[in-house]
Amino acid sequence: MKRSEVNEIMAEADAFMRSFGFALPPFAYWTPDEMRANKDVARAVIEGRLGWDITDYGQGKYDELGLFLFTLRNGRLSDLQAGTGMCYAEKLLISKQDQISPMHRHYLKAEDIINRGGATMAIELNGSAPDGSFDPDAGGTVMCDGIERKFKAGEVLLFAPGESVTLMPGDWHKFWGEGGDVLIGEVSTVNNDDTDNWFREPIGRFSAIEEDVAPTHLLVSDYGEWLK
């Protein structure tokens, strides 16, 4: 992706989130220089990979295959392993109309995926084989706003604003905006996007960035290089 495209997506996403009453925390608006200047006091932001996250999964067709995310908070794996402390994470996502977030599951993370506003949130679900791999014939059971719901292999569930689904690590899923763009909330256990995504197809989680202009704000995938 070009940096100019990333900057434009950030501005559009910020306006979309604000239209539903969601304001981002102050560090979201730091310039790269401000992020560098504050990196010592913002260790939790940097180490927890809080912030802007825009991906086309390395495929170069963001409008068809992509996702906007902003990680608001993220706990510590050591706390999760100890069973006490900050064991949770929270994100805001924007899934554009017919923009696919591809089929994947998580090794560790359980998550509530919540339609926070906009269009319908569509999620295609599939169960796992005994080894955790994708099983095209496997269905399963999820919780939808506390109500148990069985699904068949490949079934698409639709969620209006205010509705949600709880996904466990074995639940394969892909999602998109149905009939328009949708603002999505994610509340989960500790999140690690470097190690906790198992995609059905061999694709990447993060995008390579072509630096055609200066960044407005850093992506979480920029932290390692830009904040050395």
Automatic annotation (TrEMBL):
Keyword field: Isomerase, Manganese, Metal-binding
GO molecular function: isomerase activity; metal ion binding
Organism per entry: Gymnodinialimonas ceratoperidinii
A Pfam family reported for this protein in Swiss-Prot or TrEMBL: Lyx_isomer
Keyword Phosphoprotein attributed: no
Name of the protein this chain belongs to: D-lyxose/D-mannose family sugar isomerase
InterPro entries: D-lyxose_isomer (IPR010864), EcSI_cupin (IPR047581)
